[in-house]
Amino acid sequence: MADSLNSPNISDLSEEQIIALFADSLSSADGIGIGDDSSVTEGPSGLKQFLSTDLIVEHVHFRRQDISAHFLGHKALAVNLSDIAAMGGRPNGFYLSLALPKELSVSWLRQFRDGLLALAKKHNILLLGGDTTRSQNDIIVNITITGVGKPRQVKLRSEAKVGDVLCVTGTLGDSAAGLKILSNPDQYAHLTKSERQQLLESHQQPKPEVEKGQWLSQEKAVHAMIDVSDGLLRDAHHIAQQSQCRLNIELEQLPLSQAFKSFYEKNGINKQAQEFAVAGGEDYRLLLAVAEDAVKDLQKRYKQKFSTILHQIGSVSKGDSEVEILRDGSPVEVKEQEFKHFKES
Ligand SMILES: Nc1ncnc2c1ncn2[C@@H]1O[C@H](COP(=O)(O)OP(=O)(O)OP(=O)(O)O)[C@@H](O)[C@H]1O
Ligand SMILES: Cc1ncc(C[n+]2csc(CCOP(=O)(O)O)c2C)c(N)n1
Ligand SMILES: [Mg+2]
Q1: C or N terminus of the chain, fewer CB within 10 Å?
Q2: Per-residue pLDDT tens for 54-65?
């Protein structure tokens, strides 16, 4: 008791510092434990087993009036599937834990279930168990997901190499723009109905890139992979820290959707749009470090397979474990706020 009186509270710590209280090091040399998008252990039939867990908390990850129960069910599973995708794994089962306030309607819960199970069915994965309890006021959802992959195809955050090229599987910033629209609906009347719809959909119904992750995992030239959940800047930082090299991201190369550009057009501030896209979170795209001599061929085959572009957005170089953001080749300081649950690390 006396100790807690003198103790600062946890808002003085970063998320990384809080996690470090439970783990000696965030980067385990063999990639087995804490520090990646999932843990990696021995699985059945000589495969590796992936396991990951994610919390969704009302007021932190969503506001009840902003998202239907169906979409929330979808999103709760999607963010977990994305972590398995980032490892190059094939998801195979999940557990669902719920803390629910007594006043919640049965109809809300049924719709949540339908959204969740529709996505589970699409990915052919089974609900294996969970836990159910009461909460005072807020809805809290936790999903733990499992997956498998071939040992040589496991993609870690720690394997980026100096000279690699950075690629991203799709546009960035749409989800963060969707969140802005939900927060200030009147400010974005200049968007067409379909632009608005597209941005809201990215936020409320993200599409985890499971098939792309598995396809990319077969490529030896893909050295490292992570999913972009906290925002490109923060997630690139995780690769930089764990691979102990410098990541350089070129703002002009960032893939931005037409709807996202329109979202920003009103102010005519394109520079700000790029910075918003680099900082904004919940994109659920894959960021990868690829051997430079293989990237052109990989992009060609990726285009043939998925009819979409694997965007080249930067490079990996020797240096401190930091991320440098460049505009026209010169470093810039990004002023947009990154998403942080706690203090800046
Ligand atoms: N309380 C905790 N105790 C032990 N390990 C933790 C704890 N919280 C997070 N971790 C581990 O720390 C690493 C980073 O966690 P984090 O939640 O940031 O994962 P992420 O994939 O980067 O983000 P997201 O939660 O958006 O999927 C992961 O390996 C995770 O398992
Ligand atoms: C009401 C509300 N406020 C803010 C946000 C934005 N947001 C919440 S969590 C997160 C990063 C990933 O989280 P985690 O690492 O916990 O998976 C982001 C960008 C939101 N979706 N809803
Ligand atoms: Mg992740």
Answers
A1: N
A2: 999 999 999 999
